[in-house]
């Protein structure tokens, strides 16, 4: 559960730090409705770059940033609708776009969701404690970014096999970067490093996205509401035409938006996707894969499995081919030649590797349920290709320059997408997946057995977390009042 207990001494120190650094904390409500942000703050953003290490950019942790690298204000929910000329299915596949968050990925929102409650309660003292951000990539970037704004020391933990761009970026922002063995699938090694740091005697606080309900609460509140707003723009008949949301597992946080969606549209299905090379949910499986942006071999503590209707596994060879199709000149030209509108083909760089995996999963979902042209499926483009240019270079070195023949092969791979490696989940299928949490979280990470039981059997467990959003906002308002910065 999300602890909102006040630590008076820590709170006093955190307030002093925020006052010194000129930091005003945005509320979750403001992230949902940025038009409610004070006009003076909105005006100042006109001269601030999206990735600048400027405290004002905390107010850009929203799905509604104007798509601009500098000086942008606010607009509608950032998204891209993929045409059937690309996807091969008549259904409308629409993806929320994460590129227009600070750091270029929505994970900065999840990091805020974990950090803000502990900051405004005084549980985390940015003057004394180091903030530790365990991740497979973008989350630790978001955490290091938020920490930098606060002027506190940060430790980013991520597997050594992640893209070089991540490490280059962290070198300039994070206080320390720790590389753990392996790649996307090696989450336990990250957790092991966290235990090592706990035992070191250093004054640290670990913000673990995989078990921190601040991650869940942020996505439930901010991403879920953004999705509902978008759906209402896309169709006048959401109760009939909105069919589902398809999201990669990762930390499990984004799947919390599915809980919000089901409360608005009871018929909507929530599908969780993962790499076929590491089919943890599908087959209790394990292995290594290349879909950067998702972590495997465990079920995240924050994943409400009771609300998951389907599991979809994607062969990592498909997104690794499609990122070339979507980003190499020969690939983009081929897409245009075969009917993909130029405004779409020229913007497919908005989809990073895990985003393309999400897209493929949405196509499989649409084919499985034989969806029609009026039906809508939502997914998320967590990040863009900005952090994966080195992967394109590696693929070129391995396979040679990308040409028309390669583009034809990639297009054929997309067209050949089938409904294999999918499973609709019944009650006991869900319970099987939920039970996998035991081995990671009870045996290894020390969670309480009563809590894993409550997650499954207590009908109010998840609702009790969801109801905390207004309480967190009240604490943020009180924190800002103590700094006095809104009055200046």
From TrEMBL:
Protein name: Pyridoxal-5'-phosphate-dependent protein beta subunit
Superkingdom as given in the UniProt entry: Bacteria
Cofactor(s) for this UniProt protein: pyridoxal 5'-phosphate
Residue stretches making up the Tryptophan synthase beta chain-like PALP domain: 102-331
Entry-linked Gene3D superfamilies: 3.40.50.1100
One biological process term in Gene Ontology: alpha-amino acid metabolic process
Residues that span the membrane, as ranges: none
Keywords: Coiled coil, Pyridoxal phosphate
């Amino acid at each position: 559960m999300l602890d909102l207990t006040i630590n008076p001494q820590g709170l006093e120190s955190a307030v002093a730090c925020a006052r010194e650094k000129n930091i005003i904390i945005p509320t979750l409500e403001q992230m949902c409705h940025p038009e409610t942000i004070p006009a003076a703050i909105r005006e100042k953003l006109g001269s601030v770059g999206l990735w600048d290490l400027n405290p004002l950019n905390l107010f850009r942790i929203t799905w509604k940033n104007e798509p601009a690298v500098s000086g942008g204000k606010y607009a509608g929910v950032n998204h891209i609708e993929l045409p059937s000329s690309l996807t091969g299915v008549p259904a409308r596949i629409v993806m929320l776009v994460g590129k227009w968050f600070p750091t270029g990925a929505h994970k900065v929102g999840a990091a805020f969701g974990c950090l803000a409650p502990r900051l405004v309660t005084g549980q985390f003292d940015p003057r004394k404690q180091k903030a530790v951000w365990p991740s497979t990539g973008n989350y630790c970037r978001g955490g290091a970014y938020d920490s930098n704004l606060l002027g506190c020391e940060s430790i980013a933990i991520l597997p050594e096999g992640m893209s070089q761009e991540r490490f280059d970026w962290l070198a300039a922002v994070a206080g320390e970067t720790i590389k753990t063995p392996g790649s996307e699938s090696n989450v336990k090694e990250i957790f092991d490093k966290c235990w090592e740091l706990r035992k070191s005697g250093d004054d640290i606080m670990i913000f673990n996205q995989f078990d921190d309900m601040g991650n869940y609460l942020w996505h439930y509140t901010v991403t879920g509401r953004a999705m509902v707003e978008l759906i209402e723009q896309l169709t006048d008949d959401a109760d009939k035409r909105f069919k589902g949301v398809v999201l990669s597992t990762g930390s499990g946080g984004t799947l919390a938006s599915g809980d919000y969606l089901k409360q608005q549209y009871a018929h909507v299905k929530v599908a969780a996707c993962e790499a076929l090379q590491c089919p943890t949910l599908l087959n209790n499986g394990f292995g290594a894969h290349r879909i950067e942006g998702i972590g495997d071999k465990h079920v995240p503590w924050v994943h409400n499995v009771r609300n998951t209707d389907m599991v979809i596994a994607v062969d990592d060879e498909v997104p690794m081919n499609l990122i070339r199709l979507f980003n190499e000149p020969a690939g983009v030209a081929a897409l245009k030649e075969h009917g993909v509108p130029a405004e779409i083909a020229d913007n497919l760089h908005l989809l990073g590797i895990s985003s393309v995996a999400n897209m493929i999963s949405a196509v499989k979902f649409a084919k499985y349920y034989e969806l029609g042209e009026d039906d809508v499926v939502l997914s998320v483009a967590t990040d863009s290709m900005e952090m994966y240019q080195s992967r394109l270079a590696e693929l070129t070195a391995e396979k040679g320059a990308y040409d028309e023949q390669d583009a034809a092969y990639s297009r054929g791979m997309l067209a050949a997408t089938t409904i294999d490696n999918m499973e609709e989940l019944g009650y006991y299928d869900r319970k099987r997946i939920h039970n996998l949490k035991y081995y990671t979280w009870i045996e290894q990470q020390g969670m309480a057995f009563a809590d894993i039981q409550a997650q499954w059997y207590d009908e109010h467990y998840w609702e009790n977390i969801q109801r905390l959003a207004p309480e967190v906002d009240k604490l943020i308002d009180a924190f800002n009042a103590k700094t006095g910065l809104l009055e200046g």
